[in-house]
Specification:
Elements lengths: L5 E5 L10 H13 L5 E10 L4 E3 L15 H4 L9 H13 L5 E3 L6 H10 L7 E6 L5 H11 L7 E7 L20 H13 L3 H5 L1 H4 L3 H4 L7 H9 L7 E4 L3 E2 L3 E2 L2 E4 L4 H5 L1
Helix pairs in contact: 1-4, 5-10
Amino acid sequence: MSRLPSLYISHGSPMTALNPGLVGERLAALAARLPRPRAIVMASAHWLTHQPAVGGHAQPPTLHDFGGFPQALFDLQYPAPGEPAVAQEIAQRLSAAGLPAAIDPQRGLDHGAWVPLRFLYPQADIPVVPLAIQPLFGPAHQFALGRALAPLRGQGVLLIGSGSITHNLHDWRSYQDGKEAPYVRPFIEWVEQRLQADDSAALLDYRRQAPHAVQAHPSDEHLQPLHFAMGAAGGDALGAQRIDAGIDAGFLAMDIYRFDGADAQQRAA
């Protein structure tokens, strides 16, 4: 079975589900290049817990975890099945790594999961297992979660972290006239440079080292899924490939990253 990469996806506003723009095209093209997974593990910035947790629902409901949007958005469903056996394996692997995890049998798919999945796998026919992140424990903890699950990539499981490469909702109305927040490009360029250099240490310490880090992420739950995806690369070589999906509303950078780890050189050959 071909080893799958791990992915980091910027899921954007819930309205991305209705107006996908460039990110929808990029996600569809990415899925077309990947071997078909037998299951997907989705670590979303919208499932936050104090301790590791994994969703064990056999048919996870579509969660409309937002308000103030058009009814058409609430009418959307993503009826992918769950995979309780994969959830059990995840919990076992995390516990073996010193990260004991609970299984939540009721957890559904929040918009950080189902919005991008609509464009990756629109048939909703691949089982999806949600995974919580614990932002209070910091980036190194999310990296450890990914590292513990990295072997699943060789078993047909696609590991995805879903967040946003920049995410400052205080700027929601500030850049609607076509202007771009001045901190966005310096921040995303620094992230790309550090990823290309396999500089995990700097990325785990991004709040001190990256330019405009606190402006780009007043709270960092939307970047920590990137650290999960980095850990899931499985080794010192991240094999990072940036997929530019534009900047939404002047402040939400929609970058996607593919991590092939040590397989990256072979894939490029």
